[in-house]
Amino acid sequence: MNYLDELQAKRTAKAFLSGALPQQCKNAGERRRVRRNVLPLAFALTLLCGIFSVAGAQEPPPRVGGHVGIAFPIVTRSDGQTTTISEDFIVGFPVGITIRNSSPFAFDFEFVPTINNSPRQDVTLTVHPGVIYGFKKNYAVGLRAAFDIGADAYGFTPLIQRSWKIKGNTKYFVEADFPVRFRQRPDLRRTTSGTFTAHFGVAF
Fold first, then answer.
1. Helices marked H in the chain — which ranges?
2. 99 Cβ partners below 8 Å, 6+ apart?
3. Domain of 68: which CATH number?
4. Are 170 and 115 members of one domain?
5. pLDDT at position 166, please?
6. Count of C-beta atoms within a 10 Å radius of residue 199
7. Interatomic CA distance for residues 71 and 148, integer angstroms
8. Which candidate, 115, 123, 95, places its Cα nearest to that of 204?
């Protein structure tokens, strides 16, 4: 090795120790580092895409629908007394948003503005979330939680429903509701009431 070769070898060693590698060495190192970082990430993304595609194939995305209707409390039993629709006319206007998938269960979030004409005209709002289970031949049963805003009452509402298809996802339904409510009177006495309500509407 002559003097020039020895000087070049010293320069190369010094550049290696200082981190200033030749450009070709740097490029090779960067390529190896990129491969080490990218390959696991690509594998993870591919695995996630596969999982989501399988899940999507097994379960379609939920469908959002709704319903509108009108409801009449027919008879109410409360505090030992029975009141019929002819004695106290009340009308409600249920509006709901329904989320369902391929299972028989559906989640339904309903609001019911209600107008009461006796003993004085007032308006209350019932927040009425619930779960509906659909059977074959267009029958369904359900259970809702109930919070009567403006009436200081809460409770639950079992229901039975029968529907008839109109077109596409649109159908007409008749529903029997059985609201149970718990109230606290101004004298702090608690009362429980049960009602039979006829509900007619259109779902879509």
1. 3-18, 23-58
2. 62, 63, 64, 65, 106, 107, 108
3. 2.40.160.20
4. yes
5. 95
6. 21
7. 15
8. 95
Domain check: are 117 and 179 in the same one? yes
Clarify whether residues 44 and 12 are in a common domain. Answer: yes
* Non-local CB neighbours of 176 within 8 Å, separated by 6+ positions: 159, 160, 161, 196, 197, 198, 199
**pTM above threshold 0.85:** no
Nearest Cα neighbor of 126 from 100, 90, 162 is 90
Q: Are residues 44 and 106 in the same domain?
A: no
Below-70 pLDDT ranges, the chain: 1-59, 118-120
- Which domain range does residue 197 map to? 63-203
Number of domains composing the chain? 2
Same domain, 190 and 93: yes
For the chain, the residue count is 204
Same domain, yes or no: 113 and 193:
yes
What pLDDT is stored for residue 61 in this prediction?
A: 85
* CA dist., res. 164 & res. 110, Å (int): 20
State the DSSP string of 164-182: EEEETTEEEEEEEE--EEE
The residue with tokens 């320069």 is 11
Boundary (domain end) residue, out of 39, 58, 77? 58
